[in-house]
């Protein structure tokens, strides 16, 4: 239900346009595919992903000898899920250790919803009975530490911090020690997101990661990249920048409720080969959903 509600914008543009297309065309022909291609591109699915999808659709339609457009609609959903999953079901859950400390590094550009997502994830883990600690690793942006503390209070989770302007690597060192000595299950680490100075930011992230690796072998167990769905193809560019600098293991795609271009999920998966683990569907603490391609695609047309 929440999923359906959060995807209203995408549903009312993308899904309705596909439904309308299917209603207008009785036969599956070249014009039908051309219009479908336009709709998919408008939904931010991404040109190369669209081409791949249309090719596969054409092949499938031929193979099954489909003539009725109504039947094609089912194949479209099927293929969208298949393209997302890349032949195998994607692991959309967090890599939480069976025992001992799990460290999750959260990266992304300012304003994408990083702090909010950390709060939501902390709350979710907390509700699952895990003890959680937050590390205020964005020591650069004014107000970032305080904002994280507000979320910490809201969800009942403590924040390890130093003063603004201090070395983020030192904050991480403290946070890992605190998490170890308190036998915490999950340490969620916020990081800076000033992309104006890309080289410095990436160096800082590398340093932070090195400290974590040194203090807990095998960590970080996840590097989550937060992307804003409303920024469309820009989100893809950001994803490329971050995944070049660090080994991103999953994506949190925020503000899906605020865009009609939900196709960006497919573009990210298909072009970067990084699974979307969570989607943000609003500003409130429980507006975060584990991502599942089947649920997503079928939810769009339901
Ligand atoms: P940060 O700078 O990356 O830490 O971004 P914030 O967490 O401060 O979020 C920036 C803005 O986006 C805030 O107003 C959030 O309430 C809002 N936001 C975050 N996630 C979502 C989401 O999934 N949906 C909507 N509609 N707003 C969101």
TrEMBL record:
<dbReference type="InterPro" id="IPR027417">
    <property type="entry name" value="P-loop_NTPase"/>
</dbReference>
<feature type="binding site">
    <location>
        <begin position="108"/>
        <end position="115"/>
    </location>
    <ligand>
        <name>GTP</name>
    </ligand>
</feature>
<dbReference type="InterPro" id="IPR036225">
    <property type="entry name" value="SRP/SRP_N"/>
</dbReference>
<dbReference type="InterPro" id="IPR003593">
    <property type="entry name" value="AAA+_ATPase"/>
</dbReference>
<dbReference type="InterPro" id="IPR004390">
    <property type="entry name" value="SR_rcpt_FtsY"/>
</dbReference>
<feature type="domain" description="SRP54-type proteins GTP-binding">
    <location>
        <begin position="275"/>
        <end position="288"/>
    </location>
</feature>
<dbReference type="InterPro" id="IPR042101">
    <property type="entry name" value="SRP54_N_sf"/>
</dbReference>
<keyword id="KW-0342">GTP-binding</keyword>
<keyword id="KW-0378">Hydrolase</keyword>
<dbReference type="Pfam" id="PF02881">
    <property type="entry name" value="SRP54_N"/>
</dbReference>
<comment type="function">
    <text>Involved in targeting and insertion of nascent membrane proteins into the cytoplasmic membrane. Acts as a receptor for the complex formed by the signal recognition particle (SRP) and the ribosome-nascent chain (RNC).</text>
</comment>
<keyword id="KW-1003">Cell membrane</keyword>
<dbReference type="GO" id="GO:0005886">
    <property type="term" value="C:plasma membrane"/>
</dbReference>
<feature type="binding site">
    <location>
        <begin position="190"/>
        <end position="194"/>
    </location>
    <ligand>
        <name>GTP</name>
    </ligand>
</feature>
<dbReference type="GO" id="GO:0005525">
    <property type="term" value="F:GTP binding"/>
</dbReference>
<dbReference type="GO" id="GO:0005737">
    <property type="term" value="C:cytoplasm"/>
</dbReference>
<keyword id="KW-0963">Cytoplasm</keyword>
<protein>
    <recommendedName>
        <fullName>Signal recognition particle receptor FtsY</fullName>
        <ecNumber>3.6.5.4</ecNumber>
    </recommendedName>
</protein>
<keyword id="KW-0675">Receptor</keyword>
<dbReference type="GO" id="GO:0003924">
    <property type="term" value="F:GTPase activity"/>
</dbReference>
<keyword id="KW-0547">Nucleotide-binding</keyword>
<dbReference type="GO" id="GO:0005047">
    <property type="term" value="F:signal recognition particle binding"/>
</dbReference>
<feature type="binding site">
    <location>
        <begin position="254"/>
        <end position="257"/>
    </location>
    <ligand>
        <name>GTP</name>
    </ligand>
</feature>
<keyword id="KW-0472">Membrane</keyword>
<comment type="subunit">
    <text>Part of the signal recognition particle protein translocation system, which is composed of SRP and FtsY.</text>
</comment>
<dbReference type="Pfam" id="PF00448">
    <property type="entry name" value="SRP54"/>
</dbReference>
<comment type="similarity">
    <text>Belongs to the GTP-binding SRP family. FtsY subfamily.</text>
</comment>
<dbReference type="GO" id="GO:0006614">
    <property type="term" value="P:SRP-dependent cotranslational protein targeting to membrane"/>
</dbReference>
<dbReference type="InterPro" id="IPR013822">
    <property type="entry name" value="Signal_recog_particl_SRP54_hlx"/>
</dbReference>
<dbReference type="InterPro" id="IPR000897">
    <property type="entry name" value="SRP54_GTPase_dom"/>
</dbReference>
């Amino acid at each position: 239900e929440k999923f359906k509600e959060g995807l209203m914008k995408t549903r009312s543009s993308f899904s309705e346009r596909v439904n309308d297309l299917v209603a207008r065309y009785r036969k599956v022909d070249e014009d039908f595919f051309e219009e479908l291609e336009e709709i998919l591109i408008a939904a931010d699915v991404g040109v190369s992903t669209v081409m791949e999808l249309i090719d596969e659709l054409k092949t499938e339609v031929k193979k099954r000898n489909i003539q009725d457009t109504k039947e094609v609609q089912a194949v479209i959903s099927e293929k969208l899920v298949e393209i997302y999953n890349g032949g195998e079901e994607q692991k959309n859950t967090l890599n939480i250790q069976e025992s001992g400390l799990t460290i999750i590094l959260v990266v992304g550009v300012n304003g994408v919803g990083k702090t909010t997502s950390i709060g939501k994830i902390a709350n979710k883990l907390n509700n699952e009975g895990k003890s959680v600690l937050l590390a205020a690793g964005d020591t650069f942006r004014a107000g970032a530490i305080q904002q994280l503390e507000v979320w910490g209070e809201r969800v009942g989770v403590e924040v390890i911090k130093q003063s603004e302007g201090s070395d983020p690597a030192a904050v991480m060192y403290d946070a890992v020690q605190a998490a170890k000595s308190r036998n915490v299950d999950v340490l969620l680490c916020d990081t800076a997101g000033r992309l104006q100075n890309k080289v410095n930011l990436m160096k800082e992230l590398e340093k932070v990661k090195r400290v974590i690796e040194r203090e807990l072998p095998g960590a970080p167990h996840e590097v989550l990249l937060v992307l804003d769905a409303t920024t469309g193809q820009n989100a893809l560019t950001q994803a490329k920048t971050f995944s070049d600098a660090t080994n991103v293991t999953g994506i949190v795609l925020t503000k899906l409720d605020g865009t009609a271009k939900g196709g960006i999920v497919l573009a990210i998966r298909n072009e970067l080969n990084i699974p979307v683990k969570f989607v943000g569907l609003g500003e409130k603490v429980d507006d975060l959903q584990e991502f599942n391609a089947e649920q997503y695609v079928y939810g769009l047309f339901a």
